[in-house]
Amino acid sequence: ALLFVNTSQGRHIPETLFGIFFEEINHAGAGGLWAELVSNRGFEAGGQNTPSYIDPWSTIGNESFVTVSTDLSSCFERNKVALRMEVLCDSQGSNTCPMGGVGVYNPGFWGMNINKGKKYKVVFYVRSSGPIDLTVSLTNSNGLLTLATAEVIASASDVSNWTKVETVFEAKGSSPNARLQLTTSRKGVIWFDQVSAMPLDTYKGHGFRNELFQMIADIKPRFLRFPGGCFVEGERLRNAFRWKASIGPWEERPGHFGDVWMYWTDDGLGYFEFLQLAEDLGTLPIWVFNNGISHTDEVVTSQILPFVQEALDGIEFARGDPNSTWGSVRAAMGHPEPFDLRYVAIGNEDCGKRNYQGNYLKFYDAIKRAYPDIGIISNCDGSSSPLNHPADFYDYHTYTSASSLFSLAHKFDQTSRKGPKAFVSEYAVTGKDAGTGSLLAALAEAGFLIGLEKNSDIVEMASYAPLFVNTNDRRWNPDAIVFDSSRAYGTPSYWVQTYFKETSGATLLNATLQSNYSSSIIASAIAWKNSEDEKEYIKIKVVNFGSSAVTLKISVDGLDKSIALSGKTKIVLTSDNVMDENSFKEPTKVNPKPDLLEDVDKEMEVNLSPHSFTSFDLLK
Ligand code: AHR
């Protein structure tokens, strides 16, 4: 096979081509990127009927010593449920409390990760009928080993009304399966609400779990689409993500049950935190909002105006002046500077729904009138025929087999060059080709992304989906990053994305492939400038999707000097078996590995392993 690269001809690739899509799915946020350790911190997950279940909270001590229930006595208006704990035993007397006391514990999201020497901030609200003598502790999974502990002693008058207790403690031991305990050996009735435990060590103190943040930062995403997906729509509208319920002091957020992915979230990772996440990643936020349509119910267009106002208010919250109605709420949350919100998507996957077009136009007109510069994304696919409504971009989603995704590299070759541009906001290989993150899937995705690079005159943005999975709650498979309370690894699909981190804003070079294997090989070449060393590089990427090794002759034209080896010159993603995967045991079994590249020049012959993705990094 022959690859001709002409460095004298090129086209600018959009600055935003490759980004990420974060959805609250698979406990990606709650119990994932959002570092809150307590699950169901406000006891709201069981609903407003009392008594309600308080899962995953459990009682320490049997019912002759303690009874636990809920009532609606919280001091927080939007989340009235509080925990009521009646302690029947005492430190002495006929009903003496068992050793260690009685109380409640929270195991977090399948165990809390506590590390020796690290600090944790525990906050809770308490009220009591008498004096309190509480032990707050982080322990191992069965409560027998204490990792950190603090005493909270208060007189009856101090806690007769709801009182906030805040304590920071340093762990004296480690466990990836720890739990938070609130215990006492003093008789009386105590109410608890809004119990939070956060590691102090989060990204910039902004609440993002460091190593998960780092994994997404490492792929240098140019945009962050959030917060879903189906999560935005809801199975029923009443359970959709609504931004206004997710802002303000965390204690006052009602939380909600995401009825598509079937779990409760306290909404600690709310609209503000998503915007903060985008800013911290140095990327552009793309807000997907609910357009009055869920999976099963819809607001008719004649009644959609309140939803339109909600979207306008959300934009004002993000980028309005700190003196504006909603900009001031953002400022009060500690961010007087506007966030750089330039794009919004009107709904998710709703194009075919009865009220979509009607609702869409109401949103579109109102947003364009108030914010003419905002890029608006339609759910209707304009890749094969023109849209019948105005839009700046259209969503394109694809989940399919490996061979069909590899062929979809040419999906946009025939698309009209006029009209709104494509936002491939969700793509992935799914089904049996994918395993739980196979090399095969990743290679098909690499081919697809090369196709998008080549069509980046009309494809403006693209993101893999889903980004994260907590291995304890795999609602969607496969995913790019797999984690539990303390560990994380990238699937081969994640590693493929690292090959494209230089692409956005680079120059697409003319690269022509001549080959008998053209149905199984695809290649592209870009020129990009490294801001760290100010040098210009050429990156040639080739996917060999077939099962035979291929010798590829690369001819680089248009350079007046010899090209040179750069640091790691040839990087290969491959493995012995095309269905190989990474795992907690072997997290880097299938990841990019540097390989020797001899004979670097304007003309060179390279060997492409079967089922491989290779990049050649040359210094211009
Ligand atoms: O990425 C998982 C889901 O797939 C998204 O929530 C939805 O948009 C799509 O159907």
TrEMBL record:
Q: Where in the cell is it found?
A: Secreted, Extracellular space, Extracellular matrix
This protein's UniProt keywords: Extracellular matrix, Glycoprotein, Hydrolase, Secreted, Signal
Q: Does the keyword Secreted apply?
A: yes
The record's section on Pfam families has:
Alpha-L-AF_C, ASD1_dom
The record's InterPro entries line, in alphabetical order, gives: Alpha-L-AF_C, ASD1_cat, Galactose-bd-like_sf, GH, Glyco_hydro_b, Glycosyl_Hydrolase_51
User: Could you say which EC number(s) this protein's record lists?
Assistant: 3.2.1.55
Question: Could you mention a single GO BP entry for this protein?
Answer: L-arabinose metabolic process
Family note: Belongs to the glycosyl hydrolase 51 family.
Q: Name one GO molecular function term.
A: alpha-L-arabinofuranosidase activity
Record has Transferase as a keyword: no
Q: Give the protein's recorded name.
A: non-reducing end alpha-L-arabinofuranosidase
Q: Which SUPFAM superfamilies match?
A: (Trans)glycosidases (SSF51445), Galactose-binding domain-like (SSF49785), Glycosyl hydrolase domain (SSF51011)
Q: Where is this protein chiefly located?
A: secreted
Report domain Alpha-L-arabinofuranosidase C-terminal positions. Answer: 425-612
User: What catalytic reaction does the record list?
Assistant: Hydrolysis of terminal non-reducing alpha-L-arabinofuranoside residues in alpha-L-arabinosides
> PANTHER family from the entry?
ALPHA-L-ARABINOFURANOSIDASE 1 (PTHR31776)
Organism of derivation:
Acer yangbiense
